[in-house]
Amino acid sequence: MTNGQTVDALEVYSEKTELPLKYLKSIGMLSENGVLSIPYYDCNGDLISMRYRKGDKRWWRKGDRTALYGLWKHGSGSGDILYITEGESDWQTLDYHGYVALGCPGATNFSAQWVIHMKNYKEICIVPDNDKGGEDFVKKTVEQLRKAGYRGKVSVLALPKDVKDVNDLHRRKHEL
Q1: Residue ranges of the domains in the chain?
Q2: How far, in Å, CA of 36 to CA of 69, rounded?
Q3: Backbone angles phi, psi at 62, to 5 degrees
Q4: Residue 93 backbone dihedrals phi, psi, to 5 degrees
Q5: Three-class SS of residue 164?
Q6: Domain 9-171, what architecture?
Q7: What is the pLDDT of residues 72-97, one digit of tens each?
Q8: Is the pTM of this model over 0.85?
Q9: Are 43 and 72 in contact (CB under 8 A)?
């Protein structure tokens, strides 16, 4: 609380990521009592999971499982290239800039069962963070893509060494 008022977690998140509040609200994000709510929708736009954040703490709504983020926009689509990000803010950044992407909630959570949503893309480009988690994300994602029989091209986007992730690149005003 600041001066007796609860901090709006969505406004703080918008400032931190430098993504417009209007955009974040348009994809269903909201905050209540200082907790940021990140809805996960399926390909039909139905809510399937809810992830929460408060400070550095993250958790799922009771009974929910990890899922791909962005399915309602790009799941089960087709095209030349699909970007797979490590986390919601990187997905939001790419989506905001007009890229076709899906987000994996965590470096080691990618599942072979999700590949059904990607099979009609000619190329999958993995967009890792520039850290050990990012290395794990690439390894796990490639392993699961192959396990599921994905036959398209798989590439990895190499960010500059001094850049943490795609959202960091965006905040530094680099062209995406």
Answers
A1: 9-171
A2: 15
A3: -55, 130
A4: -65, -50
A5: coil
A6: 3-Layer(aba) Sandwich (3.40)
A7: 998 778 999 999 999 999 999 999 99
A8: yes
A9: yes
Residue 70 main-chain phi, psi, to 5 deg: 105, 5
Torsion of CA 162, 167, 172, 174, to 10 degrees: 90
> Would you say residue 1 has pLDDT above 50?
no
> pLDDT band at residue 2, thresholds of 50, 70 and 90?
very low
Considering the chain, what is the average pLDDT of its residues? Answer: 93
Tell me if 121 sits within 8 A of 81, measured CB to CB: yes
**What is the 8-class DSSP label of residue 157?**
-
Reading phi first (left if > 0) and then psi (alpha if -120 to 50, else beta), residue 141 is in alpha
pLDDT band for 137, please (50, 70, 90 cuts): very high
Name every residue whose Cβ is closer than 8 Å to that of residue 91 and which is 6 or more positions away in sequence. Answer: 69, 70, 85, 101, 102, 103
**Would you call 64 helix, strand, or coil by DSSP?**
coil
C-alpha to C-alpha distance for 97 and 90, rounded to whole angstroms: 11
Residue 174 — pLDDT band, cuts 50, 70, 90?
A: confident
